[in-house]
Design goal:
By secondary structure, the chain is α+β, with helices and mostly antiparallel strands. It is built from 2 helices and 6 strands; from the N terminus they run E-H-E-E-E-E-E-H. Strand 3 and strand 4 form a beta hairpin.
Length: 142
C-alpha cells in the first residue's frame, strides 16, 4: 500500500455525517474515546450498505469486522458534527481494509483502520468476495 494522508479531507471519496450528542461526552466535556469507534462504525456501515444493501445485517452472508485500530489525534467537542471520510485501501480474496478520517470543524481528530472479512455468519467461515462486490470496492480504492 502506498502512503496516503488520512488527515487530509481530499483523500476520501466517500463521506458520512454524524451528530455529536451530549451523551457522547466524557467528564471533561470531550467526546469520549469509545465514541470514536462508534463514529467509525456509522461511516463503515453507511459505506458498505451503499455498496451492497443488507450486507451488514448480521445474518447469512456479509461483513464481519476482524480488526479496528483507532488513532487519537485531537479532542472533539459538543455540540457539533463529525464528517467521516472512508477510503478502500486493500482488497483481498475474502477481506478488505478500509481507512477513515474523523473530522470536526475542518480538523481531523482521529484516523481509523478497519479490517473486514466477507463471511458466512451462520457457519463462521470466511468466503471469497463476489466479483461484483470487488468491482464496487475498487471504485473507492486508493
Amino acid at each position: 500500500m502506498t502512503e496516503i494522508d488520512l488527515t487530509n479531507p481530499e483523500t476520501f471519496p466517500y463521506w458520512t455525517d454524524e451528530v455529536i450528542r451530549f451523551a457522547d461526552l466524557d467528564r471533561l466535556n470531550h467526546v469520549n474515546n469509545v465514541k470514536f469507534a462508534t463514529y467509525s462504525e456509522s461511516g463503515r456501515v453507511d459505506f458498505l450498505e451503499h455498496l451492497d444493501p443488507g450486507c451488514t445485517s448480521g445474518s447469512g452472508v456479509g461483513w464481519v469486522i476482524a480488526k479496528l485500530t483507532v488513532n487519537f489525534l485531537a479532542a472533539a467537542y459538543y455540540p457539533g458534527t463529525v464528517k467521516i471520510g472512508t477510503v478502500v485501501r486493500r482488497i483481498g480474496n475474502s477481506s478488505v481494509v478500509l481507512e477513515q478520517g474523523l473530522f470536526t470543524n475542518g480538523t481531523c481528530f482521529s484516523t481509523i483502520e478497519n479490517v473486514l472479512v466477507w463471511a458466512d455468519t451462520k457457519n463462521e467461515t470466511s468466503l471469497p468476495l463476489p466479483a461484483d462486490l470487488k468491482d464496487k470496492l475498487e471504485t473507492y480504492l486508493k
